[in-house]
From TrEMBL:
This is Secondary thiamine-phosphate synthase enzyme. It comes from Rhabdobacter roseus. Signal peptide: none annotated. Belongs to the UPF0047 family. InterPro entries: UPF0047_YjbQ-like, YjbQ-like_sf.
Amino acid sequence: MLVFQKECTLPPFRRGFHLITDRVLKEIPELRQIRAGLLHVFIQHTSASLTLNENADATVRQDFESHFNIMVPERAPYYRHNYEGDDDMPAHIKAALLGSSVTVPITNGQLNVGTWQGIYLCEHRDHAAGRHLVLTAYGL
């Protein structure tokens, strides 16, 4: 059994949905040694999230942002947690809906994703700093 774990920091991204698959792969080249296994990507934040989705058409990422902003609006009168601005509580709700991790199969040293799938950083804050990820690859 091979196990590799790395921590990395992504640069700041503007609010929205961003493909980070290539950045993740650059940070953990050891996964090329794994014939069959899993890559687990975890984000150490409560106001950003990760998901796996469309990797070719940028309008999908724009539509995600538009939909989530309607589904989870800012300045809802029932929000009490707004210490860091109008995007504070909505960012936490969006992160809870999407989740803090993705797990992707590894086959013959490569991510075994569908043709049109990529890992997204879902940035829910207007002015976020870099985001910290824990990458764990394991398998045979």
